[in-house]
Fold this sequence. Notes:
Elements: E1 10-11, E2 14-15, H1 24-37, H2 41-54, E3 61-63, H3 65-71, E4 75-80, H4 90-103, E5 108-113, H5 117-128, E6 132-138, H6 139-144, H7 146-154, E7 158-162, H8 169-183, E8 187-189, H9 200-208, H10 210-218, E9 229-233, H11 238-244, E10 254-262, H12 273-276, E11 278-282, E12 285-289, H13 314-321, E13 325-331, H14 332-346, H15 352-367, E14 373-378, H16 386-395
Parallel strand pairs: 4-14, 5-6, 5-8, 6-7, 9-10, 9-14, 10-13
Antiparallel strand pairs: 1-2, 3-4, 11-12
Helix pairs in contact: 2-4, 4-5, 4-9, 5-7, 9-11, 10-11, 14-15
Amino acid sequence: xxxAFHDTGRFGKYGxxxxxxxxxxxxxxxxxxxxxxxxDPAFMEDxxxxxxxxxxxxxxxxFAKNLTELLGGSSIYxxxxxxxxxxxxxxxxxxxxxxxxxRMGKKRVIAETGAGQHGVGTAIxxxxxxxxxxxxxxxxxxxxxxxxxxxxxxxxxxxxxVRTGTRTLKDAINEAxxxxxxxxxxxxxxxxxxxxxxxxxxxxxxxxxxxxNEIRSQIQEYSPRLPDVIVACVGGGSNAIGSFYPFIxxxxxxxxxxxxxxxGLKSKQHCASLLAGSEGILHGMRTYIxxxxxxxxSRTHSISAGxxxxxxxxxxxYLKDTKRVKYVExxxxxxxxxxxxxxxxxxxxxxLESSHAIAYAMKLAKHGNKNQNIVVxxxxxxxxxxxxxxxxxxxxxxxx
Length: 400
Ligand SMILES: *Cc1c(COP(=O)(O)O)cnc(C)c1O
């Protein structure tokens, strides 16, 4: 293999590119496009145009006054990615990568999706930018997520139902990779989080860093100081790294990533890869993964589909080992409690993913100092989760 890459894509010992030889030219082409366009003012201007005029950036930083008063401790601020077009932070990345695909001269974009959120985000960006869009989705997920499948189709995407293996996300990933290898010339593979081989973890982080950059300037409307704590949920890790990255050098700011504790870490029904996983290689990267003694990927569980991934972005693995970011977990029950609380108290229906971060921030605020500021990234809105929460509350006999 010639080594004409710009970078090895390592975060300490994590990251890298563990890919079949057939994909090396495609990854190399993507990497050089990434290095070219990230310093290209015309590209950045285009991206800025779509992020503002089409997707509604900047999203507000909202002082959660009612919640703060109720808890009686530190102040809580919400970074409102739920108000971004598409209903979550995913649009920051799908617009960025779709624009990159266009600049690279690709006509066709493929993506894989589990719960369907990334598929919808990709379909939105492709429709806006006139790109052909094809989404791979496990047959089981297609059945479970009918309304997202319909959304994708309305937005003009073709949805491939994957009937191999467990017929879920990992099989859809395999199928998307197979397609990419065959159609690499005209096809762009759009990954939905800070995962996969280099350069995806860095590229997706850069597109999501708009979240943290806005937090940095918006907090000044409320306070002369930068935030004391920033909290975000971690599935693959993109909304969290996007929130944290611009603050990594400010060592006094405490950064907290919240993983899905599911039914508790002891139950083994969770997706806390950083807290309970071990080092390994998955989807082209070295990182923390949930695996058995033989290296087989463990089954995961979370009440929130967007958190349900057995790995995590390699930069988070590095930030955990170097202790720059603290990682904690939040179980299903506490996430649902936070979901209900935010609806009642603030008039905001948060995504279940984001509710994990809100739960932890509430705990911090309650015991925290009054002049401390906590920023929580509200990664998305919860309309998609209403059915799940309703069934959960009924099962717990908290409502009829
Ligand atoms: C997809 C999703 C997540 C998880 O993805 P990250 O890459 O960890 O950010 C979190 N929140 C919402 C609303 C999502 O749609």
